[in-house]
Amino acid sequence: MNDNEKKIETSEERKNKIRQRYKGIDTDELDVIPALPQESLMDDTAIKRVAVYARVSTDDPRQTSSYELQKNHYQDVVSRQPNWILTEIYADEGISGTSLKHRDAFLRMIQDCKAGKIDMILTKSVSRFARNIVDCIYYQRELKSLNPPVGILFETEGIYTLNANSEMSLSFIATLAQEESHTKSEIMNSSIEMRFRRGIFLTPTLLGYDHDEEGNLVINEEEAKTVRLVFYMYLFGYSCQEIAETLTSLKRETKKGNTRWSHGSVLQILQNERHCGDVLARKTYTPNYLDHKSKKNRQDRNQYRKRDHHEPIISRDDFIAVQHMISNAKYGNKEILPTLHVIETGILSGFVPIHPRWAGFKAEDYMNASRSIPIDITEDIETIEANEGEFDFRGFEIAHAEYFQTADRMKVTITSDTMTFGMNSIRKLNSIQFVDILIHPTKRYLAVRQAKKDSRYSYQWARSCNGNIVNKQISATSFMPMLYELLNWDIKNKYRAIGYRKQKDNEIFLLFDLNNTEILIPNKSEMQNDETDIAPLTTGNKKSILAYPAKWAEGFGEDYYQSVKQNTLSSDGEWNSQATGTPFETTELNVSSPEEVRKQLDEILEEINLKGGTHG
């Protein structure tokens, strides 16, 4: 007999032994001890400590009747069972059943169950207990696993969770309850959308206004004084905290009658568009009907604005100016509406100083400011002819400096929120610490010149350290989104440009060409050459990949005459590189002047003091 035959025979023997074993034994030889019969809940004579859970979904006074009816009903239900003892009625009012957030009574009831104070929970229905299927199943399992277990009796559905076959029914009913909440949420959202589309807005109570019989907003003159005081103080330069302290000292009341003010309560007044007569609907929305967490609407849902909806307390222009000030306060800016300036004359004609602490100017504003200065029409490079005795450089290229050793070159590295100049740049400008940074949007040049420390446009690009001057990273969060948009750059990448020192007599400034920059791409990003116009691979480190514009693959550099033209700044006569810019109006806002604001403040404070207030 070979090995295969032995294996088959052994396998058959094992199978036969298994068959014999599972034939069992004679039932007469087996003693069966029967289980005790399970009594139904109502036939159980054991004493049960019963808790009742009731919930109404709003805190509207009209819902009080619903709560009282539930309470009285379950008091009667428990009293009819001689072995049931009512421990407590746990009730949540004005709380949704789709989330456990703020359901304090529910969570306290669960803790009492774990502490052994409750034997059974009685509630009207699955939807009253929880409209979230995950919460419903989780808590019934958790209570069931306690020792002794705690059951939940859902009266309407007739489900008792300690019964063996209850979970399937409970899961099905809980799913329906959750979907019912989903449907109600969709209906409510649809109703709100239809109201807004027809200009029917919700206008909750607001300081400075009352509601007339038809629900329209009408000015409450006494409260309006507080609103005007808040806006004019902010326009005058006071911070939200200083305004709050002033209102508290004057004992001015909030809409709810409080006389203690905070930074946040002042900011809410300043940011509410209804004070200028407008209504903006759907500032927030709730993406998930289960957790009810509101989210700021950043064009995720339709918004509706109605201008001149009601009588304003503050002019719209003053309101807009305040919003600009609020958005730029984080950059240390305290001006009402800074004006964009543009250089009209000299070597830097058409350059626009970049404001270091103002995020309100857009790329279009810088472009329009620069274009307001006429550009000299220079000779087209195709018509250039070499003069007698000169070299004819037509057809020649100036190689890109980036192809050569650039360790000693002036560089600036730009990210989405910073700007850093190399030490060579700082040395070329005589190691000064403060500079102006200017942009020419059309020529795509960045200019750097000496500035005084107290200049409104000055940046600190260097600092003193142990007697030496070292470079300092410039925080550029306020204006960098504008610069990236202006240059059509990818916000994910860093850019590095080479600079040149320009000097005439005692005048010095640096010029950086942003037309051709090195690009530092994050190593994990996917390079899509057809969209970004970036060469697929050059050198790089672990953090980023160094790349160049794809057009550089077509040659060694720029056409000689084109390069000379690009790197030449024209000037009639003197350079005047320190010329100050002239204002370029980017807005037509008619904002109250400082004198008008001061006058309004004096009048309001005088009226308040006459009524018995004390100005601190």
Structural write-up:
The protein is about 30% helix and about 20% strand. The protein has about 625 residues and is of the alpha+beta class. It has 3 domains: about 50-180, Rossmann fold (3-Layer(aba) Sandwich), CATH 3.40.50.1390; about 210-330, Hect, E3 ligase catalytic domain fold (Alpha-Beta Complex), CATH 3.90.1750; about 340-385 and about 390-585, no CATH class. The strands form 8 sheets. Strands 13, 15, 16, 17, 18, 19, 22, 23, 24, 25 and 26 form an 11-stranded antiparallel sheet that branches. Strand 20 and strand 21 form a beta hairpin. Mean pLDDT is about 80; it is low at about 375-385, about 525-530 and about 535-540.
Topology:
Elements: H1 3-21, E1 48-56, H2 64-79, E2 84-93, H3 104-114, E3 120-123, H4 126-129, H5 133-144, E4 151-154, E5 159-160, H6 166-197, E6 209-211, E7 217-219, H7 221-236, H8 240-249, H9 263-271, E8 279-281, E9 284-285, E10 295-296, E11 304-306, H10 316-328, E12 340-342, E13 352-353, H11 363-371, E14 397-399, E15 410-414, E16 418-421, H12 423-428, E17 434-440, E18 445-450, E19 458-460, E20 462-465, E21 468-471, E22 474-475, H13 480-487, E23 494-504, E24 507-513, E25 518-522, H14 529-532, E26 544-547, E27 557-559, H15 560-566, E28 582-584, H16 594-610
Parallel strand pairs: 1-2, 1-3, 3-4
Antiparallel strand pairs: 4-5, 6-7, 8-11, 9-10, 12-28, 13-17, 14-27, 15-16, 15-23, 16-22, 17-18, 17-19, 18-24, 20-21, 23-24, 23-25, 25-26
Helix pairs in contact: 7-16, 8-9, 11-13
